Amino acid sequence: MSKEIDAMDVITSALDSYGGRQKIAGDFRMIQCPFHSDNTPSLGVYVSRNGRRKLGWFNCLGCSEKGDWNKLAEK
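and the corresponding structure tokens:
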């Protein structure tokens, strides 16, 4: 019997292992942005299942980089 891989678990596990300063802000996990030199958590990753945004969608408040989880995970 195969266990179905849950996207939420994959994303939160990856964010847990990412390190750096992080905080929870509503439906977002704020992390230090890998797209620019960042000392504070400025990149929000959507980690809610309620459908307001696509799970894993991200947006940086510092450099305005945004996209889906695959783009962030690749970086």
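(Above: one complete record from the training split.) The mean pLDDT is 90.
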